[in-house]
Design a protein that fits this description.
59 residues, 53% helix, mainly alpha
Amino acid sequence: MRSDGYLRNNIDADRLAEDLMAPMMDGLQIQWVYEPGSVDVLERLKSAVEPYLTVPYED
């Protein structure tokens, strides 16, 4: 992402993955398994990632 210019320069990609993305995705997946359709996983992912990007998240 950084080499393509999508990730802001002041963001450590490894730390972002470890501290935010992995735990968040685990929680969303568990919630989805217990109650499918109760959470929009893609929308939650987009809203969590977008502040760290240089461009808007697009599908």
